[in-house]
Amino acid sequence: ADKKPLLDVNGIEVIYNQVILVLKGVSLRVDEGAIVALLGANGAGKTTTLRAVSNLLRGERGEVTKGAITLREQRIEALSPAALVQRGVVQVMEGRHCFAHLSIEENLLTGAYTRTDGKAAIARTLEKVYDYFPRLKTRRHSQAAYTSGGEQQMCAIGRALMSEPRMVLLDEPSMGLAPQIVEEVFSIVRDLNRREGVSFLLAEQNTHMALTYADHGYILENGRVVMDGPAAALRENEDVKEFYLGMG
Ligand code: ATP
């Protein structure tokens, strides 16, 4: 059966500070229920692509100057980040961004700010987040500042899940984490994808890990998609091996 695109990014150009052209016509799609990896070196434009989708460019003095972004075939470029969260699209920013002085549980609850379905429903989501991230349950009364890097990354993802999203934009979840913790985070992402049907667009420099868990990958170079394909095919591709998997 033909899958419908959940997210469709079509030929977008992004300019920062009215002069710096950073995305030069990027197109990609995320099908309903897919994990899609956005790969490429530092500075290739991964974060910018995610920010364009979640409408977080303005704070960075950036704007989409060409192309279109649609969610279930509806244009979304004009929607605020909060309106996007209400439509099921939430971004987990690079560098985690937990509130250091709040407890893990308080951090998680801030993720429910756009919800209007009441405390009981929010409490059910919180229990679900704890089921996926048992470490967060153990640490729920700890101040985020005193938890590990892995726990803070889990907290950032858990906080995003508190909005009951259909699609999570995940920016470099592996950054700064030990390989074992990266595996743990990615395997929870896969569980969320399989059991809850949450779709993911995942920006990663850790090509190997991302292609192990993703269904499909796009490789960005200097603001352009230079290659894309099923994750398994990219893993076997000689150029990808040489340039991104360090097997040349
Ligand atoms: P990283 O892994 O460092 O996040 P990336 O692939 O996500 O890399 P981006 O952060 O999207 O890349 O950056 C792409 C380009 O845009 C880089 O050359 C960067 O210097 C530039 N850039 C990013 N943010 C801004 C900004 N606010 N103003 C001007 N230029 C920016």
UniProtKB/TrEMBL annotation:
Keywords annotated in UniProt: Amino-acid transport, ATP-binding, Cell membrane, Membrane, Nucleotide-binding, Transport
Transport among keywords: yes
Family: Belongs to the ABC transporter superfamily.
CDD domains per UniProt: ABC_TM1139_LivF_branched (cd03224)
Molecular functions (GO terms): ATP binding; ATP hydrolysis activity; branched-chain amino acid transmembrane transporter activity
Pfam families, sorted: ABC_tran
Protein name: ABC transporter ATP-binding protein
Domain ABC transporter: 7-247
GO biological-process terms attached to the record: L-amino acid transport
